[in-house]
Amino acid sequence: MYRKLAGAIAVLATAATSVLAHSWVDCVKYDPINEVCLGYPRGYPGRQNVNINTLYTYIFNASPVSQPMCSPVQQASTNYSSTFPMATAQPGETIYTTWEQNGHLDNANPTKVFVYYFPQSSQQFTDVSQRNTAKVAGSMNFATNDNCYVPGYPNTVCLGSWVVPADLVPGQVYHFVWFWYFNANPAGQWYSTCFDVQVNSASHVVQTAALPDLMAKGNPNINYVWGVTDQVNALIANTTMLANPNQGVLPVTTPYTSQPPPSSTFVPVPPALPAPAVPSTSSSTTAPPSAATSTSPLKCIPRPSPL
Ligand SMILES: *[C@@H]1O[C@H](CO)[C@@H](O)[C@H](O)[C@H]1NC(C)=O
Ligand SMILES: *[C@@H]1O[C@H](CO)[C@@H](O)[C@H](O)[C@H]1NC(C)=O
């Protein structure tokens, strides 16, 4: 009995001191109106894979000068399937990308996500240092009341919008990285998800609107990260050309109402790893482009146990 209790306390202590996070892009191109995913990141295993946390979490610890930009399962830019296809989009198209907040909601000092890309389709991301030379297709908050469906729910879906650069050339595949500056300390933790976009002159464009209106439908059903269906493929196939000035804008209709989390069980996080050591000499030449004012490690709220 005592031993059991001591073990539980040790586990709790580990969880309390851990600052590790677990998040990645689940859907590169989300359609908030139809509540479906039209394109996934590289080597995406799907949320039905119970090992997705260990397979797909990719961390940069202690601000490395050099480390592969993409996780081992995201090295191949062609690692897509008919179930988890690459996104197709037009130059100038607004894209909604989703992830889970995993307990990292922060309204006061939200952590930042950047979408980096190279303007030449031939250029691949190989090393994390390339974020200093890559271009930025978008920057967004990671998790706030404004971009997460059910802010009080640790596993709610959050989303951000960015725009496919207008000068990308149709007919080519371009390479992108979603880069999350979870911890902006010199000992920082960052996370990446690599993805690619087939740029075409026509594509299925999703309706745009202010986020509260797009999010009025509530947290997406977990099915959206289980792969595309025939119905989604039909949607993707029904392409259109972006009219000037841009894709259709949804009129403001429904007020935002918070909805209960989906009934499906979520994949639990793996055991916490030790927190990174803060380097004694901080020669911080690789300071992230924002949120650099934070000086104390962010706290990771543990996920609830699976049902
Ligand atoms: C492709 O993705 C799958 C699923 O995540 C992964 O198991 C596999 O290692 C990946 N292959 C390559 C070559 O990256
Ligand atoms: C294709 O898109 C057009 C324009 O949005 C729409 O009117 C039509 O119903 C769509 N067709 C299918 C099969 O989804």
UniProtKB/TrEMBL annotation:
Any Pfam family: DUF7492
Tree of life domain: Eukaryota
Location of the region described as Disordered in the Swiss-Prot/TrEMBL record: 253-307
Bias kind Low complexity: ranges: 278-298
Bias-annotated ranges (Pro residues): 258-277
InterPro entries, sorted: DUF7492
UniProt entry tagged with the keyword Signal: yes
Domain DUF7492 positions: 20-116
Signal peptide positions on this chain: 1-21
Keywords: Signal
PANTHER family referenced in this protein's UniProt entry, alphabetically: CHITIN-BINDING TYPE-4 DOMAIN-CONTAINING PROTEIN
Protein name: DUF7492 domain-containing protein
Organism: Coemansia thaxteri
